[in-house]
Amino acid sequence: MSVEFNHTIVLSRDREKSARFLAHILGLKVGEPAGVFLPVTTANGVTLDFATVDHDIPMQHYAFLVSEEEFDDVLARLVDAEVSIWADPHGKQPGRINRNDGGRGLYFMDPGGHAMEAFTRPYGSGPAEWAGVTEEVPGRPADGA
Questions:
Q1: Going by C-beta distance under 8 Å and a sequence separation of 6 or more, which residues neighbour residue 136?
Q2: How far apart, in whole angstroms, are the C-alpha atoms of residue 126 and residue 59?
Q3: How does pLDDT run across 119-136, given as a tens digit for each residue?
C-alpha cells in the first residue's frame, strides 16, 4: 500500500461555523458528526475534522488545489460573502489574486483564524515568469474587504 494523507484535525472555537464556512466556500459538504469532530471531505478523500476547543489556537495553513472552474466558484463565493482575499500569504496584496505557475491562486482567513489557500496549478508546475504576477479582482475594493 502506498502512503496517503487521510485526515487532519482543524481546531476552532466553533466547529460548526468553521466547517460550514469552508464547505460553503469550497463547494463541499459537511459530514455527520463523529464524536467531537465535524468532517469536511475533499474530492481526493482527505478529511478535515473540525473540533471545538476552548484555548488559544495557533494559526495553521490549509491549501486546496482546485480546477479553473472551481476557482471561479470559490472566488465568487468569497466575494459574495465579503470575505477579504489576498494574492499573497502575508496579506500585502489585498483584493488581488496571484498568477503563480500560470494558474490562479488566492488566500483568505476562516472564522477560526486559519489561513486558507485555493490555487489552480501546483507549485513549480508552470513557467517561472508567472511568479509574483497578480491581478485585481473585478468589483473588489483595493482593501480586499
A1: 95, 96, 142
A2: 29
A3: 999 988 887 777 778 888
